[in-house]
Amino acid sequence: MNIKCFIQDQILLPRLKKSGVLAVYDPDHLYHELCLDMATEKIRVIDTSESSIESREESLKTLRSLGNSKELEGMLVYVPAKAPLSDEEKQVDPFSIYSACGSVFPDGAGDEYMHLCLKAKPDHSTEIRRIFKENPLPTFAVIDALGGGSGWPNLQVILGVESARDILFALLVPSDRQKDSLKENETWVSEAKELFDTCIGLKLITRGKTWSSIGDELWRFLLYSEFVFDLPESLPDSLSNVPRAPEEAKHLVEDLCDRLRNDRRTQSVYIDRA
């Protein structure tokens, strides 16, 4: 699912169906086309971009129709401005009434553009954070291009898991069945190299093609990265060139380590490796 469809189907439509009225505030004009494309026979979209007076009249007319019509199920009001926060701002904003009687987007930090992209493509969280660090408003096309839609099919089949996070976890502490599957062929090795580089910035040095050699390097990289992230001050110069995960991968590294520590099945392995 591309980011446009994700925002439409997973974020905006559920709110619209729940409340019947949704006000979308968009000062950066990111969601303009996306909102207009949501118009159907049952959903009326009012674009306030061009004429404030006409759009006010149309919004009020639609709101009245919404209460009396069986055919109309919802209305979305698109406002190319920041959402009013204070009572004073809401009094000045002619469209704040629609968020008051319905729902509003964005609503909290979880609706920030980067967080929506992270929800839509959780397997590419490191790349997404890197992209947003360089450009706070990347286009939908840039986000959709992540991963190229290929995934890691051999790893998914061999390990019996789907997400990149679960694949990494399985490669750190594979079950006996997973170890046997990894031994049976080497088709997963090239995918693992791509996965490591994409998700945590690890460029494998070992030329080994066994889980043992690759797993050892993955563990060293992960634990050292966690150590660096936990430091209260900058690294000594003598350690600055030791490979570690970039800042953008911090959330994933910490999540994996927390999971390894808190899962009773893997606690002892984590302690031994650490």
UniProtKB/TrEMBL annotation:
Stated name of the protein: PglZ domain-containing protein
